[in-house]
Amino acid sequence: MTKIILVPGLLCSPRLWQFQVDALGGEHEVRVFDHRRDDDYAAMAERLLDEVPGSFALVGLSMGGYLAQEVVARAPDRVERLALTCTRAEPDTEETRRRRMEQAAEAAAGRFEAIAAELGQGWLAERNRMPANLALLAEMARHTGAEAFGRQQRAIAGRRDMRPLLGQISCPTLVLCGSEDRLTVPEGHIAMARAIPDADLVILGGCGHLAPLERPDAVTDALRSWLRR
Q1: How far is CA 194 from CA 136, 198, 200, 206, in A?
Q2: pTM, whole model, 2 decimals?
């Protein structure tokens, strides 16, 4: 039985991974890490390493993928397997950092729900913007809240460039994304997979930035294959 730690993305709650938790929980020890409490990745990574004893398989989506890279850089002996989903290795541009801080300030000033809705619309592939999915995104945003959203945005804006470290990753690694992801585009995942020794690359059709929600069966199948490596 493998210990699997799942980390959601910005504004996402454990509900993002519910299908995978249900599917894999009977075979493995599965938990979702709370990524709302820290405003920098060093503190977030150290807290994860403190809270999770021993070695584990680590799966991160988007900002969760940034954390997964920070954790494996700090403690490669603790990470048995790594899955980077809908994420990137390069840091934000100055323009993107500025926009993140603007969004955090606007959310604190009372526009949190509107900002969360705007972001969520862009994360899903157009075909997946059905009312049930949009309602779930709103629910996950409420679970996060404006204060934690600000902390998350500060952490993301301040993250380091992980590209120089990708070649040092030695555990079985899965790189997965959606073909219609406009935030962390497929080309970036192809580059990550090429940089990580012996990484597996999966690009899912009909899928945007939230693959576990948009293509739950396909993501679970990819994770099962990764766990068998």
Answers
A1: 34, 8, 9, 23
A2: 0.97
Instruction: Using alpha carbons, list the distances in angstroms from residue 57 to 22, 30, 78, 131, 228.
Output: 17, 9, 9, 33, 12
Tokens at residue 108, please?
A: 């604190």
Asked if residue 41 lies in contact with residue 169, where contact means CB atoms within 8 angstroms, the answer is no
Residue 57's φ and ψ, nearest 5 degrees, are -95, 135
User: Which structure tokens are listed for 117?
Assistant: 């809705």
Decide: 30 and 24 in contact? Cβ < 8 Å: yes
Integer Cα distance of 188 and 179 in angstroms: 11
Of 137, 129, 128, give the one whose Cα is nearest residue 205. 128
pLDDT tens per residue across span 130-167: 999 999 999 999 999 999 999 999 999 999 999 999 99
* Burial (CB count <10 Å: 0-12, 13-18, 19+), residue 57: buried
- For 100, half-sphere exposure in the C-beta direction (CA atoms, 13 angstrom radius) is 22
